[in-house]
């Protein structure tokens, strides 16, 4: 029933959004384009690092000039897998460390998400990453090429957060002997913080490395978490794709279980119903659940002055809804405030040094993989 209602609502949305782009509160200036772009991060000098799924990393000026970065990890490209997120170490100005997430091949045609870091050496004609070391690997590696998650973000205390998707395997999201379907919290070198919630858990399976699995986990019961962001109060929020509808925005709490696949506001793709969160109060309830789905690809909080009225708001990049979704946060509650149709699948959204919004389109269907700069419409 939830899926039928969602399909009807989607048809209404499509009917009224045709001319909505004419009323957007910003101008979108195309800067350049990429081959399957996935993420971007700003360097201190105002240039950007941009990843492409096929395994490339670029340094990009705000005028769109691109130069490649050599020495990136090998990626397992295919399906939803390849190069993923990029983030700078909080002390990048001193140590030059850049973190990359990606899909990594394993034995017997398996694969899993991984995060590596290396020192960025920027030259006049070429740049490279040196001293590459893997700081995290999703456990275990499994068959399939979907739902890696692998968004990465540092919090104000310098801890590294990684979203680990359920790999379309359902039950591992509830399995404490796996980091699949979890949010993990690490020190910057990949070691496990002593105050993580499950560091003292012990497995009955002697083959399980208790510290390496339990110790990493901060929360569980996630499906395909494709956005992580720290709010102005220093709290972590996460946005994830639900099954057939039921996308979620969650305030991430220590040790909490968000319920997938036991509960969801969506249903299985074959039409089988999944109980709602309200039926299982032991599971954390999302701050927002989208029915119909928006298919979120990224999440950020705006802290700039260029769009002064939006300071403190969250923004979701929407792939399926081909839009940017503005979200107002009030304590632990949230609501969708506005939706800005972009006419393309939106993969990533980041605030620039001057407060402009920088957006990466996906490259699929009519989406062209463009980098856009959004500034207030005059």
Can you characterise this structure?
The protein has 378 residues and is mostly beta strands. It has one domain (2-376): Neuraminidase. It is built from three helices and 24 strands. Strands 2-3-4-5-9-8-7-6 form an eight-stranded mixed beta sheet, with no helix packed on it. The chain has a four-stranded antiparallel beta sheet with strand order 1-24-23-22, with no helix packed on it. It is globular and about 55 Å long.
Give me some keywords for this one.
378 residues; mainly beta; Neuraminidase; 24 strands; globular
Shape estimate: globular
* CATH architecture assignment: 6 Propeller
Number of strands: 24
Rg, Cα atoms, Å? 20 Å
Estimate the helix proportion, in percent. Answer: under 10%
Q: How is the topology of this model organized?
A:
Layout: H1 2-16, E1 26-33, E2 37-42, E3 48-52, E4 56-60, E5 66-70, E6 83-88, H2 92-95, E7 97-105, E8 111-122, E9 127-137, E10 149-154, E11 160-164, E12 182-186, H3 210-213, E13 217-220, E14 224-230, E15 236-241, E16 247-251, E17 288-290, E18 296-301, E19 314-318, E20 323-330, E21 333-341, E22 346-351, E23 357-361, E24 370-376
Parallel strand pairs: 5-9
Antiparallel strand pairs: 1-24, 2-3, 3-4, 4-5, 6-7, 7-8, 8-9, 10-11, 11-12, 12-13, 14-15, 15-16, 16-17, 18-19, 19-20, 20-21, 22-23, 23-24
